Amino acid sequence: MTINKYQGSSKEEAIEKAKQELGPGTVILNVKEVKPKGMLRVFKGTLFEVTAAVEEQERFENPRTALNTPLKMHESISLAADESLPLPRSNEKAAGEPGEQPSPGKQPDTAGRTGSGMQGASSSRGNSPEPKGELTSEGLEKRLENLSYILEKQLSAEENRKDDALEPKPANPEGFQFIKMLYRTLLENDVNEKYVNQVMDEAEKIMHNGSSVDYILSSVYQKMVLKLGQPDTIALNGKKPKIIFFIGPTGVGKTTTIAKIASRYKVEFEKRVAFLTADTYRIAATEQLRIYANILDAPMSIIYTDEEMNAAIERVSDYDLIFVDTAGFSHRNEAQCQDMRRLIEGLEGKYEREVYLVLSATTKYKDLLEIADIYKEIADYKLIFTKLDETTTFGNMLNIKLYSGAPLSYMTTGQNVPDDIEEFDTQKIVKQLLGGR
Fold first, then answer.
1. Are the CB atoms for 238 and 319 separated by under 8 Å?
2. Phi and psi of 29, rounded to 5°?
3. Edge-to-edge strand order for the sheet containing 27-34?
4. Most exposed: 23, 89, 161, 209, by fewest CB within 10 Å?
């Protein structure tokens, strides 16, 4: 993994610098606004600093085997039902936040769980013991809130760690307990066990190097952000029109999602949008899309065949985006799968297309695997997850991303048009998977 910082006069400029140096696989770990300092600060503009990383693509095992075998813990992790997991409390404060006075340290107990240093990535080699407290969800949430500060510490300490790589490392009981807690948290968030084990393997390597709890958390966070990747959303290259197909099972919110995205490009980016609907099974869906089209003052056509689709596109060929709403159907209905494939493949080659598979975050994992497989036979797609407001566990988004290899694009959090949609927020989702809010 390569991690660097880049600055620019805007967030977009700094991200572009990162992508130019690190390549297309660049993942943004953190964005920070840097205020100018000194007497001449009034003449200086604000800078934006991004922390970016890149790592080679990994090969992931097929998680279906895990569905047919009993759940087993990571080979070096054993969790008792009512086990108390101690977590040392950092006495450091996040940048710009008031610090807390450390509480008196506790004596080592018979299990050998003592407070270790928490002064950054190399603190475990310090001589002064740090205070520790019981592991709680609130304690983890506070660390996740201060993750930006932890990343800063990790980057500044990286060179020192390289110099100390050959030194013997002390035992790290707090790190081991912390990894056990992260392991349990990821499983509770429905992350597939195979993917949890892959993350924990990396965390254990760091733990055995004597790293602090903050350093372990930062490294796990980075690893998971890299696995999810940057969102891949609709990008206009000047060629008109771009045809956007939305496919997926019934009831996942395709029509509402189309309206949200179309509204964004119409209002915010002042692009000309048009609608086509092939969802002739549900009258309500057609009427719903027609209402949205009227609100946006956008043309809409109902299509039944690929020939009608191409003719309708030709009539609005000077538009920027044409959104195609398709009929939702059971992924077990082979006839409708074939109809969908013929419609998408029937698009004339002179048009540029993108296909988005819309999935509900509330769908069971086993069903999501089958849906991902069936729709992969129809077309290559990007992923949109809806109904994040209706679930408390987000592990399936990571599972399906890794299983399908398809990039994530958007996520929705309610029915309000056009508000309840955003580009997939990788950093926020990873923090929630790790126990944050």
1. no
2. -90, -30
3. 2-8, 47-54, 27-34
4. 23
pLDDT at res. 158? 54
Instruction: Please give the model's pTM, rounded to 2 decimal places.
Output: 0.71
3-state secondary structure of 210: coil
Residues in the chain: 437
pLDDT of residue 138: 64
Reading the block at residue 62, the tokens are: 């097929």
Place of tokens 């959104």: 323
Q: Which two tokens stand for residue 396?
A: 């399936």
**Closest to 423 in 3D by CA, of 225, 224, 232, 227:** 232
Separation of alpha carbons 188 and 394, rounded Å: 10
**From CA 257, how far away is CA 358, in angstroms rounded?**
8
Angstrom distance (rounded) from CA 330 to CA 336 = 8
Q: How many CB atoms lie within 10 A of CB 313?
A: 22
Helix (H, G, I), strand (E, B), or coil: what is residue 244?
strand
Contact 368, 387 (CB under 8 A): no
Lowest mean pLDDT among 93-107, 312-326, 403-417: 93-107
Helix (H, G, I), strand (E, B) or coil at 353: strand
pLDDT score of 38: 54
- 215 and 254 in a single domain? The answer is no
pLDDT at 335: 85
Beta strands in 221-335 (DSSP E): 242-247, 273-277, 300-302, 321-325
Same domain, 310 and 408: yes
Edge-to-edge strand list for the sheet holding 408-412: 300-302, 273-277, 321-325, 242-247, 352-360, 382-386, 408-412, 421-423
Q: Are 124 and 214 in the same domain?
A: yes
| Cβ atoms within 10 Å, residue 240 | 17
Q: Does the pLDDT value for residue 94 go beyond 80?
A: no
Query: What's the structural domain count of the chain?
Result: 3
Whole-angstrom Cα distance, residue 55 to residue 59? 12
Domain that holds residue 408: 242-433
Indicate if 214 and 95 belong to the same structural domain: yes
Residue position matching structure tokens 């087993």: 72
